[in-house]
What we know:
- Helices cover about 5% and strands about 55% of the residues.
- By secondary structure, the protein is mainly beta.
- Among the domains are: about 1-100 and about 165-190, no CATH class; about 105-160, no CATH class; about 305-340 and about 375-475, Immunoglobulin-like (Sandwich), CATH 2.60.40.
- Strands 2, 3, 5, 13, 16, 17, 18 and 19 form an 8-stranded mixed β-sheet that branches.
- The longest helix has 20 residues, at about 1-20.
- The relative contact order is 0.12.
Amino acid sequence: MKIKLLIMFFVIALFSPLVKAGEGGVSKSTVDDQIGVEVAVYNNNIGLIKDTRKIALPSGEGELRFMGVASHIMPVTVHVKSLNYPKDFSVVEQNYEYDLINADKLLDKYVGKKVKIIVWNEYQDRKETVEATLLSNNNGQIYKINNEIFIGHPGIKVLPELPEDLIAKPTLTWLYNNNSLKEHNLEVSYLTNNISWKSDYVVVLNGDDTSASISGWVTLDNKSGATYRNASLKLIAGDVNRATEMRRDKAVMMEYAMAGARAAPQFEEKAFFEYHVYDLQRKTTIKDKQTKQVSLLEAAGVTVKKEFLVEGTHGIYTRHYQNLNPKQPVTVYIKFVNAGDNNLGIPIPAGIMRLYKKDSDGSLLFIGEDRVKHTPIKEEISLKIGDAFDVVAERVQTDYKQKTSRLHESEWEITLKNHKKEDVVVGIIEPLSGNWSVIDSSHPFTKKNAFTIRFDVKVPKDDEVKVKYRLRVGL
């Protein structure tokens, strides 16, 4: 007798989850079945979701409704497999149910049926319930009440139950073959739109602009239509090619408080194919319609260099150049090398670097920002900060001759004025074209490439320097 009871208990224990999963001939799985979820987010507004759930299924052919997927899922990218019994489970047909419940769809299901309408009787100060037959829900409701036809009716419509064929949440529905009586660990992976990440950086310069501290933050924006609880998070940095151009939502811009201690970096970086992966070293919950920030990097004592640059314009060397305002902007750049011996040395994801510096009162002030591209190790980062206030440049063409139809000579004078309290070095960048040569020059220059020369001119404080040179250009 005891043996029979033990056998019966074993059979009930074995099959009870299967009966629960297969009630009504349709098995259902919700996020409560999750045993793991991974989220890999790319720069171009897509994410790869891996949702693993423990699911018990009846043996043979059946239908499984996999609920709680992202509403912006790309159904053609779905891949499902059993991790523990891969040979015993296969999908023969897949449907994505996105025709979700709303008021009109619910009323459509009750056309020709009786519903209740609750109205407020203002004169008697009480609620009254009216029984009505819904005749139509096409551009408004038409009801039959007490053998009279009502076109529209005020009040709250009450339905007796929820129709079975309406879906409350985005759902993947599979017809499957199952040959296992044991629970499957089903891994469902898919791509979804409307989840993205970007990086932002805070750069704080020291007093003499020779070093900086850099803090990097990741901003994750989830509008995919799903919440990923206790998820493993990977960020993929790189330009992944897409077969079609996808619409991109406007990025959410955020400012960061400059005061207080910052958390240590929490991502581990590693190379992957032609990209870089930043793997969060802890689990995190990514809620739908949530913007999340996580510390990416911290670096102090980064050696930087400040540059003043005057940049010429293409095409002005083969014609008469007249400008009513000879003043040219002197642009300020902050440059540094992303190297280990410069207290950095990890691939920098593309983003915006915002620069700050303390004034004489010790207040931290914003001084400019620039966007950086994905920057590998040992490469230089150059940030355009703005135009100098106290360093002025003026460009004047002092001579021009057209020697032949294809040969031009011009002479230039660039005046650099320094109104600062310290000496500065100003770089003059001249973009050339054709077959060119410098006939005469008041200052030495370097040839940066086949069509660019650069003067580096020291300008003493409260002084000015004139740079003169004559150029021959053949087209």
